[in-house]
Design brief:
CATH topology of the largest domain: Beta-lactamase
Oligomer: single chain
Largest sheet: 8 strands, antiparallel
Shape: globular
Order of helices and strands: HEEEHHHHHHHEHEHHEEEEEEEH
CATH architecture of the largest domain: 3-Layer(aba) Sandwich
CATH superfamily of the largest domain: DD-peptidase/beta-lactamase superfamily
Number of strands: 12
Structural class: alpha+beta
Amino acid sequence: MTHVAPVPVDLADPETVGIHPRRLQLFLDRVRLEVDEGPLPSAQVAVARNGRLVAFETYGDATNDKRYILQSVGRTVVAAAVWKLISDGLLDVGELVADIIPEFATNGKHVVTVGQVLTHTAGFPFAPLGYPKMLDRRQRLESFARWRLDWEPGSRLQFHLTGAAWLIAEITERKTGMAFPDYLRTAIVEPLGLGFLLPVPADRFGSVLAVPVAIDRTSDDQEVDPWGPWYLASPEVLAAGEPSHSIAGTAADVALLFQALFHSGLWRAEVVAEATRIHVSDKPWGERIYGGSDDVANLALFCTVSGEVGGSWTPRTGSAGTFGNGGAPCQLGFMDPEAGTSFAFLTNGYPLAGYDHSALGRNRTINIGNLGNDLIR
């Protein structure tokens, strides 16, 4: 999928769609502060409501035509593709993965359901499938067969960092006959006129992307963590196209995709409602760098939901039904379905560890998320 759409520039007047202009300016100023007086080399932000984009700005060493590696924010894009399959009657969350992908039915995995994969409760959070093996479908299927369960499916919430998305990609291909990037492009990206890229060709890495920059390097001999989000800073690895983290797009693409879920007619309303309600609510297992937390996380079908009580990655303003995903290093993409607002905040400024868990990084995530979800009167 190498589709490149024009950058959206048709902005509606905020007040005509019910966005409070001073609240919007506070949000934009808070993002810009992280570039003008903070560590971020660039940041891109967008806001939409009622199907219309009302703000799209890029600050720092980038422009509006630059795309960002979405990292886990891209899970919402993958989720939208799954919800489209469900809307079209091609997939049911109660199906057994092994009935769709027989190669997966080994080592006790025959009981895993599609719904468990989508809610990160399937039992194989660290299933290995790295570069360059992930380039070859035959080797991916052989990896599925070798994977073993770490715990009983459905008994624990632990983020499946890449294994879940590779299964979703194969499920999509079995159901549609199309590779996941092709299905995403033809079923969603092109009909909506969006600019998501999957994969990003290696020879276009520097031209289409706001390339990741280390924001806390103090000497040339410091190295990034090769197993975290920096893994995707390699053009060849990013071009391998791991579905849920390697998608590149603009903040406008993310904000408008949320709006399309409710305004385009591509998805059935009842499917979106079911897909974005809380299905699992628990404290995620594992180390913090892999998504583990002492805070409750609310999982819908491959996205997170704020809920009445929830984790630090989701906004605490707006309605409890706010859904979306946060991602490395501190990126955000969320929609409040009750308010009808959506926003995205993207950056290419990464600490050497990949995620910004510093006090400043934590405050950035909380404050920008809360302001971005508090935009109507």
